[in-house]
Amino acid sequence: MLSKSQRSLRARVAAHSLHGQRDSRELTAAARTTFCEKFEDLVDPDGALPQAERQRRVEQLRHAYFARLALKSSRARSQRSRSADETGSNASKDLSPIGRRGESRKDALRPEVRAVFRRLRREQNLTQAQLAARTGGAVCTDAVSDLETGRHASHPATVEAILSVLRISMERVRALADQNLPS
Predict the structure, then answer these.
(1) 74 exposed, middle or buried (CB, 10 Å; 0-12, 13-18, 19+)?
(2) CATH of the domain at 151
(3) How large is the average pLDDT for residues 147-169?
(4) What are the helix and strand counts (H, E) for the chain?
């Protein structure tokens, strides 16, 4: 039986293979059409509006739909942040806010802290893939690499999952990083 992370990897392989052989727009055309028709049915169920007005209204409903999704996402992130603060999550205090998708995100963990994560993983004789697998699918190998290299800022939940696998607190990681600073 495959683990959750192995099933995820298997699905990624299948998706990349499919999209490598066929045009992605062609594969998703029917779903996009159905999605757009949903808005047309809401705007003009009887088909009485002129085409230009119907399209204008459909576009406004689509904007409202995606704005509503963005609001829900923002609320969920705020709730997770409040929840982490209430539980005393220390990893989130060491991280700056994560940038928007596509933006280059500033490294939020000091290089010394990243080096401690790398050293602890190696001391436990774990590869990045093995460490990611031990999080039960909460973290992928790229996220472990990003944490250790600082290529991208790591999400607090990623840091928490890795801390749990390494069986160490963020305070201890910080203390180890401070011990290794040149004086």
Answers:
(1) exposed
(2) 1.10.260.40
(3) 89
(4) 8, 0
